[in-house]
Design a protein that fits this description.
Helices cover 40% and strands 15% of the residues. It has a single domain, classed as Rossmann fold, CATH 3.40.50. A 7-stranded mixed β-sheet has the order 5-4-3-2-8-9-10, with helices on both faces. It has 309 residues and is of the alpha/beta class. Helix 9 crosses helix 10. Bound molecules: magnesium ion (MG). Magnesium ion (MG) binds next to loops. The site of magnesium ion has 7 residues, from loops.
């Protein structure tokens, strides 16, 4: 392990199984999975590109989807995707004795959708809630934005960050507890990659980049993070993913297929989804995170003894 304040390793792979095996061997390192540069350089591109991105984000956010759904449809949808705020007991029972891992989308989930993407700030109350949450559970932010940008909004070093839809991942900063020289770390990465000839490694100043050629999405990011945390084949892991966007559906699908944990869709409108539960808007997300999950920890003595240090 190294001092994460100074070092980033960018990892990208050519298929998911390759990726997860590589991830296992690199566990404990700072790992950044880098997609193509244009995605990472979103902030430096022209206004038209940003506007297009905002339009796309808005279009995919259910609160902006024009729908002819009647309240009858909404009621019927809610029956199938009940509010997570009302499901505390069910959630508690389902996750009893399991390690909960939290995955949170950013735009439209932790922050409101706004006209200017540079002003999609999360509230101090939401930040405090997420900080508290991360004390109880491993917590990751999974966003379509580049990682640095989403970090500049959230500003919590104790979280995992998966930017660019999960192509760019970084673990929490842990200070210099496990100091290792950069050259040793670089050598460790090279050694692991010798077994993965399809991965292409490039090196910059304290940055190692391993480029992917595969389709990558938030579902794969979720799998990668679970593997990195050591829960790849665990029967007692309970991932919870909260997101509002169609790109979050890949993560909801992975969770459903694993048969572990559940997804929560943030939406005011009925929508086809692989999520199990729903929340209407960011204000309900903060209520859910701040009340249900904190309460969960306080109420669940077994959980505290087993998982909370
Ligand atoms: Mg979103």
């Amino acid at each position: 392990m190294t001092n994460q304040k100074n070092v980033a390793i960018k990892v990208a792979v050519s298929n998911s199984s390759l990726f997860t095996r590589a991830a296992k061997k690199l566990r404990g390192s700072v790992i950044t999975i880098s997609k193509k540069k244009p995605l990472q350089n979103l902030d430096n591109n022209g206004g038209s590109r940003i506007n297009g991105w905002v339009d796309s984000m808005r279009a995919s956010s259910p609160s902006h989807i024009k729908s002819s759904a009647h309240s009858e449809d909404l009621n019927s949808w809610i029956v199938h995707h009940p509010s997570a705020l009302d499901m505390f007991e069910e959630i508690t029972n389902a996750s009893k004795g399991k390690q909960i891992v939290m995955f949170l989308d950013y735009d439209g989930t932790l922050s409101p959708i706004v006209d200017d993407p540079d002003r999609a700030f999360m509230s101090d109350a939401m930040r405090a809630t997420v900080r508290k949450l991360a004390r109880y559970f491993p917590t990751a932010i999974v966003s379509g934005r580049c990682r640095d940008k989403v970090y500049s909004f959230v500003r919590l070093a104790e979280l995992y960050y998966a930017g660019s839809h999960g192509m760019d991942i970084k673990g929490p900063s842990k200070g210099s507890k496990h100091k290792k020289k950069w050259s040793e770390l670089a050598q460790q990465v090279r050694t692991v990659l010798k077994e993965y000839p399809k991965l292409r490694l490039t090196q910059g100043r304290k940055v190692l980049e391993i480029r992917p050629t595969i389709k990558w999405d938030k579902g794969k990011a979720l799998e990668f993070l679970l593997e990195s945390l050591g829960y790849a084949n665990c029967t007692n892991v309970f991932p919870v993913y909260i997101g509002d966007d169609r790109t979050d559906e890949d993560a909801f699908k992975v969770i459903r297929e694993r048969g572990q944990g559940f997804g929560i869709l943030v939406s005011k409108m009925p929508k086809d989804t692989n999520a199990t539960y729903s929340l209407q808007e960011p204000s309900e997300v903060i209520k859910n995170l701040g009340t249900n999950w904190s309460l969960y920890n306080l109420c669940n003595k077994d959980y505290k003894e087993k998982f909370v240090t």
